[in-house]
């Protein structure tokens, strides 16, 4: 006799909360392992680039941060669509939990890009199509956070944020294709699904492992944050009251 897991039950905050708690340590562990290995390969093992010198090593942070800034916004738009289509409470919570981390990576993308651009282009900033579209992405993240926090009713805030995320997700393909559509200073992608990578294998592995570390970090911190949102929004439900009472009892016992 085979047992099937009913994954739909985890759409309920009461079921998702303990599942997230079990997954968080695993993702933190993977983030640390990938991060340490990726930085070791990138900073200590990978050779010096013959054109850019040692300054190219910023890519081990810059590329992953840029990928995650875009990917997180797409995932936010996905959760926004699910929330609007099915009116699920957890969807809005997930989008809200993702937004601060996406904001962080968008800022890191711009900040590390400036540090790379100064020695390569001779300027911290240029009104380049790729850079401007990423700056717009940062403003969209900040706008999402400001909008959802300005509305007192969480369900109304989720719907307003969902509309913003779905409308503005069009900026993601603009960022990706900007170097192809316009004559920009920013170099083309070093990694592509349609052609061989334009870097040494050890550099590629270091960059990919750092990106994976950021991915695992994003999952871990988002699950941690969404558990806090669940407790805040569901604090009047019986299961949260029982959970908090149990926690207080354990603290008193210690």
Structure overview:
- The chain has 254 residues and is mostly helical.
- The protein has one domain (23-189, 197-246): Up-down Bundle (Four Helix Bundle (Hemerythrin (Met), subunit A)), CATH 1.20.120.
- It has eight helices and no strands.
- The model has no long low-confidence stretch (mean pLDDT 86).
Beta-strand content bin = under 5%
Based on CA inertia axes, which overall geometry fits? globular
User: Can you write the helix and strand succession as a string?
Assistant: HHHHHHHH
Helix content: over 70%
Low-pLDDT parts are: none
- Based on the structure, what is the oligomeric state of the protein chains? single chain
What value does the Rg take, in angstroms?
Answer: 21 Å
CATH class value = Mainly Alpha
Biggest sheet: strands, sense, closure?
A: none
Number of domains: 1
Class from helix and strand fractions: mainly alpha
> Would you give the CATH topology?
Four Helix Bundle (Hemerythrin (Met), subunit A)
Task: Measure the end-to-end span.
Answer: 43 Å
The whole-number mean of residue pLDDT values reads 86
CATH architectural name: Up-down Bundle
Please give the number of β-strands: 0
Number of helices: 8
């Amino acid at each position: 006799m085979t047992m099937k897991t009913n994954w739909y039950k985890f759409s309920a905050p009461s079921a998702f909360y303990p599942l997230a708690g079990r997954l968080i340590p695993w993702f933190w562990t993977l983030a640390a392992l990938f991060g340490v290995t990726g930085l070791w390969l990138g900073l200590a093992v990978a050779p010096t680039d013959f054109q850019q010198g040692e300054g190219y090593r910023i890519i081990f942070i810059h590329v992953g941060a840029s990928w995650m800034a875009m990917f997180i916004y797409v995932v936010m738009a996905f959760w926004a669509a699910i929330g609007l289509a099915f009116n699920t409470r957890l969807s809005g919570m997930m989008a809200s939990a993702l937004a601060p981390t996406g904001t962080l990576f968008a800022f890191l993308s711009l900040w590390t890009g400036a540090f790379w651009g100064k020695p390569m282009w001779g300027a911290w900033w240029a009104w380049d199509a790729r850079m401007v579209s990423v700056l717009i992405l940062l403003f969209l993240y900040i706008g999402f956070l400001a909008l959802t926090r300005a509305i007192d009713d969480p369900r109304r805030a989720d719907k307003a944020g969902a509309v913003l995320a779905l409308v503005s997700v069009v900026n993601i393909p603009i960022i990706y294709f900007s170097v192809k559509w316009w004559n920009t200073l920013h170099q083309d992608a070093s990694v592509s699904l349609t052609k061989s990578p334009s870097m040494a294998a050890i550099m590629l592995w270091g960059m990919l492992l750092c990106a994976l570390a950021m991915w695992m970090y994003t999952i871990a911190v988002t699950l941690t944050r969404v558990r806090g949102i669940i407790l805040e929004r569901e604090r009047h439900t019986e299961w949260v009251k029982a959970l908090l009472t149990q926690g207080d009892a354990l603290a008193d016992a210690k």
